[in-house]
Specification:
By secondary structure, this protein is mainly β. The protein has strands spanning 2-4, 21-23, 29-32, 39-40, 50-51.
Length: 74
């Protein structure tokens, strides 16, 4: 399961999300294990709660592993 960069603001793309994830080969998507796609919020408003790939909140911080999209290539 992949979460596209267009879904910034969702928990799996947040620095505070502690689930199992890895950066996609394109550098702009986050890949999740479909059998284990939930993770705890750490230090956010949902601290300690399990959050899934569609969850979001108003204190989202971009995961530092996500590379910015080069404006020249779009």
């Amino acid at each position: 399961m992949a979460v596209d960069i267009a879904e910034l603001g969702r928990c799996p793309t947040c620095q505070r999300w502690a689930g199992m994830r890895r950066l996609g080969e394109d550098g702009h998507s986050v890949e999740l294990d479909p059998a284990n796609n939930r993770g705890k919020c750490t230090e956010g408003p949902w601290h300690g709660s399990l959050r899934g790939p569609r969850n979001a909140c108003g204190q989202w911080l971009q995961w530092v592993e996500i590379r910015p999209i080069d404006a020249a290539s779009t």
